[in-house]
Design brief:
The complex is a heterodimer of chains A (290) and B (528). By secondary structure, chain A is an alpha/beta fold. Chain A has eleven helices and 13 strands. Chain A has helices at residues 43-50, 72-76, 94-103, 111-124, 137-149, 167-182, 194-200, 218-225, 248-254, 269-276, 283-289; strands at residues 3-14, 17-23, 26-28, 32-36, 58-63, 79-82, 155-159, 186-191, 203-208, 211-217, 227-233, 238-243, 259-265. Classes of the chains: A alpha/beta (290), B mainly alpha (528).
């Protein structure tokens, strides 16, 4: 099984609103996959269908080889989820909530798992004795993150897990992503923090208005979108162009031997992303960028 | 900047947010007071008759504990006897809610920070909250006095009652202001204030039943007894209330200046770092624990009061009108004491149903808050989560009825002078005989919650309509087919009457059908 998540022509309507409009998402086993899109593009709806919390209006979804709606129990036993907006029980402590969520997975935690939980609590610097109502947004997110990361799941569905974390905790989270990747686990990371996705993910899907508008490895997307090259010639002239990476060598060769300085920058994820949304930006912003 | 800068705007904002709460609860309180006074006047056209018959009932220690001593033997005092403290408690709760909502709740949710960053003085939010509450207390109490006078109560006594309410309302306004500085959560404020309310009410109970009148001065409720509306009418007692109120308000400002925004004076309570909850059933039981405990205590107190009152029922219903009403409520079979107990059990069964619906309502509350998403993304079958709530609701309903029946049995055995070994199982059985109707409404609730988190609230309407048709309907001469729509109309007439076996089976089957259909719908629908 090398496909962890696959959806085809997934649609979901809520009354008059069409939240998903033929979404085709494909996540390979063992990859950290970035799921990008602005608020309201359909990221959370997709995740909730993948969890079997809501049913797709039409289309197919397979998660770890099973139908997430009819076989949700079997699927849930193998995945861990962090919701975008974590709400906790006001009168339970963080420690109680983490242990509850862990024991709901069925198997009693091993000594290793206990140690792993302790380490996560230390790294994320979470006070476990506070009641749910006393936590800040970031700390609520830590509770859900620790409960998910402490589990032995094969697949991690993370819905904007770092929106409330400070930069230090963001580092801890990145380190955890590296660990998950090294252990061969699959992660679907929904986010709009592009730098986070760029650092952690090998492939991304960009969703817009309920459909995937771009998907692939970051390397492929960069190659497609083009590399920005800027050459300063020995006479002081500056030449600039954007082209597929493969053509850069030929372009430089065409300049002759008089190149004094040369920079070639692959497009950033931000540029890739904004290119798919250029028409939605205010006109004066687009002009400024070009 | 003045410490009160922005007070006017904050006051308008607070009024805008609370006007419905204030107007509706104020109206309710006024209707309750004037309506029950008028009902008493209508029941006893001849005052002398009332005084002769009812003296025994009002000397009963349970009655004195609940409602206080009768201020005088006038019909006016009698007419306001039940509403005097009930209204005062409602007013205190309203004052508490208003002040808490605009102080600690605002800080807890971060809205106070948003407002505080503007041109708002340090003392303005607390002042606005207390001022709105004080105004509500004054206006509602005055209107209540005017309405009482309008239905024929003596004017001085009516104003004395209003003064009693004002004293208590203002005291709880300032007290909540202090609690909002001490506790760092809105719930903590409620705990402190409502705890004080319960303790001071108990002090008043002890003062009146011991009797130890000096204890009155330690309790804001005792001040009302000292004012004695429709009796001595001692208006000057209000000065005590105002002095305490001023001291509390000063303390609130003082404490506020000692603390940071968002922090409380009392330390935040902590809990265990590791959990002992291992299943959704554990979780459901744990989150319901405080309210379950509250209901248990309520049932024990209610059972003790009802049981001790039953001894005086013979005297009370020598009036044929009261006997007629009780018979209409409970059906005619058995002795007058049995009819009285049956009426009380019927009313209590509505309260028990409410307790069970509140537990059931958590299913939808968890869904709306997003917490069930956290659970149901784990390998937890939806049906198990659904049934955990239904099971707790059913268990709670049956447990509460059983305890209520046993306590009524024990305390009524004492006041009637019959064998406790006979009376306890007799009343426990009678209380359990109420369960089919309770379980039918739970079934309807399970169906509604199963269908949609939004429709779950309609379960309360099912209870309200069922209760009105089935329990109040017969006294209003509603057509029988309408009354028969209510599950409460088909209960056994126990104690004293016949067991309605077939109806019980039908009601239980309806309840079970509701649960099954609700569960089937819940596992098939989208979660909010």
């Amino acid at each position: 099984m090398d496909i962890a998540i696959e959806t085809s022509r997934l649609t979901k309507t809520f009354g008059q609103v069409r939240a998903l409009n033929g979404l085709d998402l494909r996540v390979r086993t063992g990859e950290v996959h970035g799921f990008l899109g602005p608020n309201g593009a359909g990221k959370s709806t997709t995740l909730r269908i993948l969890l079997g919390l809501i049913r797709a209006t039409s289309g197919q979804a397979r998660v770890l080889g099973a139908d997430p709606w009819s076989q949700s129990g079997a699927v849930h036993a193998r995945l861990a989820y962090v919701p975008g907006d974590v709400v906790l029980w006001p009168n339970l402590t963080g420690g109680e909530i983490i242990d509850l969520l862990t024991s709901l997975r069925g198997t009693p935690p091993s000594a290793d798992a206990r140690a792993h939980r302790e380490r996560l609590v230390r790294d994320f610097d979470l006070d476990l004795t506070k009641k749910g109502r006393a936590y800040s947004k970031g700390n609520r997110q830590k509770v859900a993150l620790i409960a998910a990361l402490a589990s032995d799941a094969e697949l991690f569905l993370l819905d904007e897990p770092t929106a409330g974390l400070d930069p230090l905790m963001e580092q801890v989270f990145q380190a955890e992503l590296v660990r998950l990747r090294a252990e061969g686990r699959t992660v679907l990371l929904s986010s709009h923090i592009l730098s986070e996705v760029e650092r952690a993910c090998e492939s991304v899907s960009i969703v817009r208005a309920g459909a995937i508008v771009e998907t692939g490895t970051l390397a492929d997307l960069r190659a497609l979108t083009g590399t920005h090259v800027r050459a300063t010639l020995s006479d002081g002239q500056v030449r600039e162009a954007t082209m597929p990476a493969a053509e850069v060598a030929a372009w430089v060769a065409g300049l002759g031997a008089s190149v004094a300085a040369l920079t070639a920058a692959p497009p950033t994820l931000e540029e890739l992303f904004l290119a798919r949304y250029a028409d939605e930006l205010p006109a004066d912003l687009t002009r400024e960028r070009s | 900047m003045s410490p009160y800068a922005g007070l006017g705007r904050l006051l308008r904002l607070a009024w805008r947010r609370d006007r419905l709460l204030i107007v509706l609860s104020g109206l309710g309180l006024i209707v309750l007071a004037a309506g029950s006074a008028q009902a008493t006047f209508a029941l006893y056209p001849d005052p002398a008759q009332a005084q002769g018959e009812l003296a025994g009932v009002f000397d009963n220690p349970a009655t004195v504990a609940l409602y206080g001593p009768l201020a005088s033997h006038s019909l006016d005092a009698l007419a306001n006897f039940k509403t005097l403290f009930m209204g005062a408690i409602l007013l205190a709760l309203l004052a508490h809610a208003i002040v808490r909502r605009h102080t600690r709740a605002e800080e807890e949710d971060g809205r106070a920070e948003l407002l505080g960053a503007g041109a708002v003085g340090r003392r303005a939010p607390l002042t606005a909250a207390m001022a709105l509450s004080a105004a509500a207390v004054l206006v509602i109490s005055s209107l209540a006095a005017i309405s009482l006078i309008a239905v024929g109560c003596q004017a001085t006594g009516s104003w004395a009652l209003a003064v009693g309410w004002v004293g208590l309302g203002l005291t709880f306004t300032a007290l909540t202001g202090v609690a909002a500085q001490l506790a760092s959560t809105s719930r903590g404020v409620a705990g402190l204030t409502l705890g004080t309310l319960a303790v001071t009410f108990l002090v008043r109970m002890v003062a009146d039943t011991a009797p130890a009148p000096w204890l009155h001065w330690l309790s804001p409720f005792g001040w009302i007894t000292e004012i004695a509306p429709f009796g001595a009418n001692r208006f000057w007692v209000l000065a005590v209330a105002l002095a305490v109120c001023a001291a509390l308000a000063a303390a609130a400002y003082r404490l506020q200046s000692e603390r940071d925004l968002g922090a409380g004076i009392l330390p935040v309570r902590r809990g265990p770092a590791t959990g002992s909850l291992h299943s959704v059933a554990d979780l459901v039981a744990r989150t319901a624990r405080p309210s379950v405990l509250g209901w248990l205590i309520t049932m024990v107190v209610l059972g003790a009061v009802v049981g001790s009152l039953v001894g005086a029922v013979g005297q009370m219903v020598s009036d044929p009108k009261v006997a007629e009403m009780l018979e209409a409520l409970a059906g005619g079979a058995g002795s007058i004491e049995d009819i009285f107990l049956r009426t009380e059990l019927l009313f209590a069964s509505a309260a028990v149903t409410a307790a069970a619906l509140a537990v059931l309502g958590r299913l939808s509350a968890e869904e709306r808050s997003g917490r069930s998403e956290l659970l149901l993304s784990r390998p937890v079958p939806r049906l198990r989560w659904f049934l955990a709530h239904v099971a707790l609701a059913v268990g709670l309903a049956i447990g509460l009825l059983l305890i209520l029946g046993m306590v009524i049995g024990a305390s009524s055995a004492r006041s009637l002078g019959v064998s406790i070994a006979d009376q306890v199982p007799r009343l426990a059985g009678a209380a359990l005989a109420m369960s089919p109707a309770v379980l039918t409404v739970i079934g309807a609730g399970a169906l509604l919650h199963g269908l949609s988190a939004r429709w779950g609230t309609a379960a309360w309407a099912v209870l309200a309509v069922g209760f009105l048709l089935g329990e109040i309907g017969p006294t209003m001469n509603l057509p029988q087919w309408l009354v028969n729509l209510s599950p409460f109309a088909h209960l056994s007439q126990l104690p004293g009457g016949a067991l309605a076996g077939t109806s019980a089976v039908v009601l239980l089957a309806l309840g079970a059908a509701g649960v099954i259909a609700g569960g089937a719908a819940y596992v098939r629908r989208d979660l909010a």
